[in-house]
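User: My collaborator sent over this chain with a note saying "see what the structure looks like." That's all I know about it. Can you take a look?
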Amino acid sequence: MQIPPENLRLDAIQRRLKADALARTPTVDRKTTEDRADAVDLGFSPESVQRFVDILRNMNPEDVHRVADLKKRIAEGTYTATPQDLADAFTGQSGR
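Assistant: Without extra context I'll predict from the sequence alone. Here is the result:
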């Protein structure tokens, strides 16, 4: 069985992210977490979690509603878009 190169790269990236997260974790906390049976390591640093929280706080509420509307229309099968609409969305030319 041969493992596709893209899977090897993903594994290497995941290992690197975990190693980076462990490097940022104080040694005492890491040892405590390893010894606790009820501990969960999500692999996220406090800084990355804070970055995501900041992104969510600064998100335009209108975007959340637009995404929910698009999901609903796709699920119902009523969403249609021309190739130009899709191209415009990728290039930022979409007229809201």
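A starting point for your reply to your collaborator: Residues 7 and 13 are 10 Å apart (CA to CA).
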